[in-house]
Amino acid sequence: MSYHIAVDLGGTQIRAALYPTGTQQPEKLERISTHSAGEMPLARLLDLITAIYPTRDQLLGIGVSAPGPLDPFSGTILTAPNVKGFSNLPLRKIIAEHFGVPVAVGNDANMAALAEWKYGAGQGFHNLIYMTISTGIGGGVILDDRLVLGERGLATELGHVTVQPDGPLCPCGQYGHLEAVAAGPAIAKWAEAQIKSGETSCLPAGQPLTAKSVGEAANSGDRLAIGALEHAGHWIGLALANYLHIFNPAAIVLGGGVTRSGEYLLGPLRQALKKYALSEYYLDGLTLVTATLGDEVGLTGALILARELDAESYFQKPINTTKTL
Hints:
This protein is an alpha/beta fold and 325 residues long. The protein has nine helices and 13 strands. The chain has helices at 41-52, 91-99, 108-119, 178-182, 184-196, 211-219, 223-247, 263-276, 297-308, and strands at 2-9, 13-20, 28-33, 58-66, 70-71, 76-79, 87-89, 103-107, 128-133, 137-143, 146-147, 251-255, 287-290. A hairpin with a 3-residue loop joins strand 1 (2-9) and strand 2. Helix 5 crosses helix 6 (211-219). It is globular. The termini are far apart.
């Protein structure tokens, strides 16, 4: 029997699963925390793969979903602030040399887009935008049945577009990015600022909030909490309207924990799409849905990547035939 291994590398935990060829159900699934005293994350990653490695059967390839920015063509993680030691790290080369099998490494948001397109809410669409709204905002784009990567594989950082030039500081160091005004922490900070200014709410004053607590307060009817989600939904909708003009998708798939807020977020998002879209033709037939794969999206994307090593790769970089003047 032959197998593939999928790895979902995150800042908090690493998951690895062993899949028999032709199935979507793992035969083995293990997880460990990314960080541990006295052991580097890379060593923990290699040990986890070893723990599920098939002993008597053939392993065809390993796919890794990892935080970025990263270069998927070389499999190098350029920087991963939440994973110690993962800076300019040739992860694909290290894993391939360690286990002696083909390896591919992809950006986690791109892998999620790939997974939802192949097996989730994006099935059947040839052109779609996937956006995850959680602690950060990221995403991926499928155009004409191909994952959009760009020259160095750094394309479609959907959360790092400027929507408020004089807006709040983004974790990336720039100001006014969509992530800075509409991701989970931004929703909590907006609510905290409103309470501090004297607005009434059932949310506790003077205590750090989370997007989850804001969502729970909204479900209980708290107007300030509802306003925080509406505020985020508006800016996400504005950004998505711009993406409609650039990519002209047939579907938008929204993932991440913040989308569990439902219509408090999605209602204003739809209104902003209609308000800022250049023409109704961009909205005609457009499908807007929430993701369906949940926590499995990272492993599923990595599995697709591992299996594509046997076929035409999503990470085949075109030959540059242009000449520099």
